[in-house]
User: What shape does this take?
Amino acid sequence: MVLSIKSVEINKFRSLRKCNLEVGKIGIFVGKNDAGKSNILRALNLFFNDEVDKGKKLNLSEDFNFNSKRPKKADKIEITVRMELPDSYREINGDEVVWTKVWQKDKPVRSSYHGIRRNMSARGKYTEEIIEIPAKSNVHSLLSKIEYRYIPAIKSGDFFNYLRGEIYKTISRVSQVSIRKSSSSFEKDISSHLSGLMEAIQDSLGDKTKMSFPKDLINIFERLDFLSGDKEISLDKRGDGVKSRYIPLILSFLAEQEKKLLKKGSPGYSFIWGYEEPENNLEIGSCEKLSKEFLKLAGNCVDQILLTTHSPIFYNMRKTDTDGADVSVYHIIKESVNSDSEVVSGEDKIDEDLGTTALYADKIWRIQCELNEECRQRQQLEKELCNARKPILYVEDKYDEIYKIIWLKLHDFPCNKQNFKVMFDEHSPFKIIRAEGASCLAGMLRAKNIDMFSSHKIVGLFDFDEEGRTQFKACKNSNEWKNSLGGTKAGGIYLKRQGHPCFCVMLLPIPPRLEHMADLDYPSFVEIENLLPENFLRKNSFVREKTITGGVRYLEIISDKKFRIWEKVSEMNKDDLSDYKPLFEQLETLWGL
Assistant: This one.
């Protein structure tokens, strides 16, 4: 996101004698036909693109506000756009930039801009200080890279040809070399088929001739087509509603491609759409989908979307949005053909003003709410289905929090003891189930019938302590697990059960510093918490030191303090948890993630 319009002031353009409004990332203008709402988008098209409609320049005698005409006074249209600057620009240039353009008969367009710094007075009131933007400031480049796309209410064949041409212009800039090579190859291929004609011309007229493609292929791309389905139906032959759904997809594609042209450190492009009546030719369901697309795009792929509409689905976007998008709504009113347009903030009397549409407004609102609820339920079911299909890690512990927090930290997900459960469920590709005891876990893993796990990938994890080692060896000696030992002590020793594509039992991987405390054939003392740094465990009094035969020391985790350990782990850095990496790497390998 780079620049977007914070406010716009339009003076004496068509039905807008004086119009001053603040707009959000989505700005919605609602009103009857001929109320003048389109004049706001056309005024911005004039401001950024120097044309009122596509291919139509300003005609001051027609486009000047007729109620403002005064004898012996020159007609003058003035538009001012105010934009908030990115943080990195503010120290030198101010908080905002104010850009004004003036059109007068027989005079060149006057364009000027300056910065504005907001200062708070001793009484707590904001004052504005005018800042002259330095000649070498990047603000000049930033303003030159604003791309305002005007989409008319009637999406004609000519407009789609224009979009196709824009695709060519954009990709030719992004991929100049490859397109030049492709057109040159095509040119040679056609020339080989026309060699007889070229020779005949030379023999008859004495002219040495060769065929050449035009350097600008825009006219060819204007005939570019989109073919759909097995029968490859042309977009030109599809309904107007289907065509309309292509427009935001094409425009967002163009925006993404243009971003590829940016050199590192150079000011970015700003993309603003002026979209007339997006509901035209669309049924309610498609309008609902398009409104959600706008909410996703605004402030992300596209910096701002300004639109006119009669449809409650679009002018209710501020009510239905739950993602906190910045949506503003203006009601445009015009009492008669000869009166000026009045701009009113908010939706209060829109339904009443729109007449016939208001008859259906409540029904449309109910349908919209039902669609939103169905969508929410579908997303919830999809989420539950996805969760049900996740591989399962069975652990012997009573507390599974330590596994979840450490996995999140190793994968750079910021978490704390309040949000880690939600974060893990959302981001982890597997789920964890507690067995609450090594013997309970072993009983489940060694069950004769495992049909209930036929559609799941399973790993049962034992601590490499005395009970875990004993239960692991019991699995190893049973018929279902024979001859399937794999892995290493450092990476995690595991067994694969026969008759199942992914049903494993695994011992906790042992880092070199603890190697003397774990062995398949001798007493072992490593629990999941022992992989935490020793100084951390000692400092927080989570362990007691013990000595076994031969004078070997080890740290025993105090079981009554385990519930406090995971809380402290939530405050640790990723670098202190590196001994857990082999565990999650081995799990991913076994599950094929």
Observations:
- Residues 356-388 form the longest helix (33 residues).
